[in-house]
Amino acid sequence: MTGQGLQVPTPPRSGKKHLPSLQVLRFAAAFFVVLFHVGSGLQIQYQLTTNPFGLGAAGVDIFFVLSGFIISYTTNPARGFLDFARRRVARVVPLYWLLTLAVIIIALAKPDLLNSTVLTQQAIIRSFLFVPYEKSNGAIQPLLFLGWTLCYEMFFYLIYGLCALVSGRGASWLASGVLLFLVGLNSLWPDGPAEWRFYTSPILVEFVLGMGLQEIFSGSDYFRNGSQLLALMSIICAPVAYFTASLVLPGIVPPAIFSALVVIGCLFWKVQKTRLILALVLLGDASYSLYLVHPYTIQLVMKLLSKDASLGLVFLLLCAAIIWTVAISLALYQLVERPAQRFLLKPRPKALLPAVEVSSGSD
């Protein structure tokens, strides 16, 4: 499990049941990651032994399981690979590139504000292409450090899109096989170069879990009809399963189990479209912006905090920072994400062919 978050595509475009519960979960997952970074800041600032919001790191794992589910749920192979790629690029690239450019400007103007970010031509090119590199602190990331999860997302999109091109409706099964094969390769060379370790990481299994849940969900009327009791049971069992599994199982297994149970709970959840739910759905739409921008807004407040500040003042300032961050995220969604998507997904006018006069064969 990791402490940095990621982007999940918006459910569904057409022909499928809309799942507002997953939109709510997108916001919850992003908020988990926000809390994790708040906890990390407190841990460093006040030399705490542990992160008080350590479980918030599972927000990343939830995002990966959600991505596997939603991509396989919404993708129509009949639209073709280029349509699939265009939609994914429109969703992920504009805001990521904008914030990567902002990091480059900060690195040039005020490099002391960034910890392990060193500008090189290779780092810039790889970052814009969603190809991470190993930094001086050992982390495998692009310049925008949260972008490591987006590198996984784009890698998954590439694999799924190619599998859909080859096998159509069987894309989920083929993509799952490819990802599991890559994870298997990791065991053959666990200490390989950074790129090898990144693209064969066991975390890829979480996309497989999401695709598997989609196959079960789409093939089960009972699952699709929902059950508030089963939803509640799944969500309650998730943290219990996580902490229990952490005692005996290594690495990615506990957060993967946790994330799968949370997603299952939300799939069972029969959502009533109240004003609160609609507001949470909107926040789910803005979760990508929230995820990408929050470390910088939270870090700004952490730098202003004195180690002698009272607990009450710290709590108030952090609450204000979170509210401010959510407001900025909504603004970015409305002013950057949505206009960029509309522009990139706007139907292009087809070139008009000149009219051809057809001769009747006689003068």
Largest beta sheet, briefly? 2 strands, antiparallel
Q: Please bin the fraction of helical residues.
A: 55-70%
Order of strands in the sheet with the most strands? 1-2
Taken as a percent bin, the fraction of beta residues is under 5%
Counted up, domains total 1
Low-confidence stretches: 1-14, 355-363
Tally of helical runs:
14
Mean pLDDT: 89
Please describe the topology of this protein:
Blueprint: H1 20-45, H2 58-74, H3 81-109, H4 121-128, E1 133-134, E2 140-141, H5 147-167, H6 171-186, H7 194-199, H8 205-218, H9 221-225, H10 228-248, H11 253-268, H12 275-285, H13 287-304, H14 311-345
Antiparallel strand pairs: 1-2
Helix pairs in contact: 1-2, 1-12, 1-13, 2-5, 2-8, 2-11, 3-5, 3-13, 3-14, 5-6, 6-8, 8-11, 10-11, 13-14
Describe the protein in words.
With 363 residues, the protein is mainly α. The protein has helices at residues 20-45, 58-74, 81-109, 121-128, 147-167, 171-186, 194-199, 205-218, 221-225, 228-248, 253-268, 275-285, 287-304, 311-345; strands spanning 133-134, 140-141. Strand 1 and strand 2 (140-141) form a beta hairpin.
